[in-house]
């Protein structure tokens, strides 16, 4: 069915008539896209809880084991922006079938891994194939649902984007403690089979456009892989490798810079760049991308800091910590029936602004942590964070595609998803740097505040030595107390900085335009 060109900046097209309802095939396609996105986002974090167990069984050190998580993220962030071009090249059905089938096979490979290289190859394969499943879910919603039903589809996709990262650690922790860590990967087999079945039934076949290979932006494709891949590794591993004192980090930084130069040349010279970065010049879409990055910072940053605090201070195991993180998903479940109505009736600027302010407020609520804080201390802030994430992410999902011409909806989905994941990488890298620096600072300040000659200090140490059986034990206990206090203060600093970062990005809501209330659904082709 032919459709008129969209007016720039609106994303409007008459691809489907107003008032037309989606048929069962369309909803099955949406279900397939949502299931694929959930499978891909879940596997980002499902191994986090079981990493120590996996490392022990495959003979990997702590430093080597981090690549089990990093390899997936690096591969995913490379492929996400390329998914629109791959969709045009192969056709949506062929791309999704290949991605779902290979993702399932790579999951089996991870579950059967007995060595670190085998596991890393499997995780890279999962990242490349799973990354293609995320933005294409948004494309299915944009192309298969009429305008009045797209909010329902966006609500379903938003639920996967939010629940996947927070559900992963809980599910992975439960499987590791009650069954085996292998089933964190084998779980994808029945899900993959169900996804492939839905795709075969609901998504029509499209002829591959092999002629696109001849005019492909190969410089841009290479630049995208080198630039984003190198940058993600630098951000993930920089603090652990002492940044630019490490030759590996220096080389990766050079590779990343070279990649972005090649990408820029491709943008300038290619007739059809692999990804339309010029979309970022639109104030609406540029603002959406930056705010998506801020939501990624909040989502991934808190999902990392809270379990670290609960494990290091409150003595929680990985499953108990994961349950606290999962609390932020409760508002999504409760609000899901109402989100389509919200997207139809509430101004995007109000919704996203309130969402970002709630995210900031939830971070500031956690700045008064003490060594006596426990999981219950995070309940109110986690519920508030869940509401804020729902309001911000669901409306930004809709705006990401609505704010660009219809023919570029796929590019918009890729950039938007990559921005959110890049925000997560920036958050984790920044947290690693700040945590080391602030922990050292607070430890030194606490030590300086304790005078060895003070009468109160000497009396306390004498009492502790008498009770514990010697001055050495008393000194070690004092050191542990200082370290715990310093670590608590460090986590409070991290939450404060997360709140400030979100507040700084919030004024961008003023650049947003109201979503069109009577626009036809956008199309990715």
The CATH homologous superfamily name of the largest domain equals MFS general substrate transporter like domains
Number of discrete domains: 3
Mean pLDDT: 80
User: Based on the structure, what is the oligomeric state of the protein chains?
Assistant: single chain
CATH topology of the largest domain: Growth Hormone, Chain: A
Strand content: under 5%
- Termini separation (Å)? 12 Å
Structural class: mainly alpha
Radius of gyration from the alpha-carbon trace, in angstroms = 24 Å
Number of strands: 0
- Helical amount among residues, as a percent range? over 70%
Pick out the low-confidence regions: 1-18, 518-525
CATH architectural name of the largest domain: Up-down Bundle
Quick structural summary:
By secondary structure, the protein is an all-alpha fold. The chain folds into 3 domains: 197 residues, Up-down Bundle (Growth Hormone, Chain: A), CATH 1.20.1250.20; 57 residues; 251 residues, MFS general substrate transporter like domains (Growth Hormone, Chain: A), CATH 1.20.1250.
Mind explaining what this structure looks like?
This protein folds into 3 domains: 18-214, MFS general substrate transporter like domains (Growth Hormone, Chain: A), CATH 1.20.1250.20; 217-273; 275-525, MFS general substrate transporter like domains (Growth Hormone, Chain: A), CATH 1.20.1250. The longest helix has 41 residues, at 409-449. It is mainly α. It is built from 20 helices and no strands. Mean pLDDT is 80; it is low at 1-18 and 518-525.
């Amino acid at each position: 069915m032919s459709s008129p060109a969209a007016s720039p900046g609106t994303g409007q097209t008459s691809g489907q008539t107003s008032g037309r309802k989606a048929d069962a095939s369309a909803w099955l396609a949406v279900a397939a896209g949502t299931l694929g996105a959930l499978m891909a986002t879940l596997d980002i974090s499902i191994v986090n809880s079981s990493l120590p167990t996996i490392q022990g069984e495959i003979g990997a050190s702590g430093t080597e084991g981090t690549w089990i998580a990093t390899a997936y993220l690096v591969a995913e962030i490379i492929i996400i922006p390329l998914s629109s071009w791959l969709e045009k090249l192969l056709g949506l059905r062929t791309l999704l079938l290949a991605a779902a089938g290979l993702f399932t096979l790579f999951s089996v490979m991870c579950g059967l891994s007995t060595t670190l290289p085998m596991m890393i190859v499997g995780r890279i394969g999962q990242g490349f194939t799973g990354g293609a499943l995320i933005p294409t879910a948004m494309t299915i919603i944009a192309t298969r649902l009429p305008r009045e039903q797209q909010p329902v589809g966006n609500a379903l996709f938003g639920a996967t984007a939010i629940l996947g990262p927070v559900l992963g650690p809980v599910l992975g922790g439960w499987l590791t403690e009650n069954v085996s860590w292998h089933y964190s990967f084998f779980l994808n087999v029945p899900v993959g089979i169900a996804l492939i079945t839905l795709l075969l039934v609901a998504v029509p076949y499209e002829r591959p456009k092999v002629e696109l290979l001849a005019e492909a932006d190969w410089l841009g494709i290479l630049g995208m892989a080198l630039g984003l891949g190198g940058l993600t590794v630098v951000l993930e591993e920089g603090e652990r490798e002492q940044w630019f004192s490490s030759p590996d980090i220096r080389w990766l930084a050079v590779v990343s810079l070279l990649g972005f130069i090649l990408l820029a040349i491709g943008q300038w010279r290619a007739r059809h760049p692999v990804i339309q970065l010029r979309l970022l010049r639109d104030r609406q879409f540029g603002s959406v991308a930056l705010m998506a990055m801020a939501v990624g910072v909040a989502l991934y940053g808190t999902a990392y800091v809270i379990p670290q605090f609960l494990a290091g201070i409150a003595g929680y195991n990985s499953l108990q910590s994961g349950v606290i993180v999962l609390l932020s998903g409760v508002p999504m479940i409760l609000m899901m029936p109402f989100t389509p109505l919200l997207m139809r009736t509430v101004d995007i600027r109000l919704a996203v602004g309130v969402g970002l302010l709630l995210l900031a407020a939830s971070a500031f609520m956690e700045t008064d942590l003490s060594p006596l804080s426990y999981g219950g201390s995070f309940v109110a802030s986690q519920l508030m964070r869940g509401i804020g994430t729902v309001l911000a992410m669901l409306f930004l999902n809709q705006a990401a595609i609505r704010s660009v011409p219809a023919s570029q909806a796929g590019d918009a989905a890729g950039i938007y998803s990559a921005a959110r994941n890049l925000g997560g990488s920036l958050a984790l890298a920044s947290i690693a740097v700040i945590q080391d620096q602030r922990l050292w600072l607070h430890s030194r300040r606490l030590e300086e505040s304790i005078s060895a000659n003070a009468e109160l200090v000497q009396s306390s140490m004498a009492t502790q030595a008498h009770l514990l059986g010697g001055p050495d034990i008393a000194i070690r206990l004092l050191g542990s107390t200082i370290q715990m206090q310093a670590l608590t203060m460090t986590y409070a600093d991290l939450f404060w900085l997360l709140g400030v970062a979100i507040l700084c990005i919030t004024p961008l809501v003023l650049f947003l335009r109201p979503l069109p209330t009577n626009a036809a659904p956008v199309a990715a082709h």
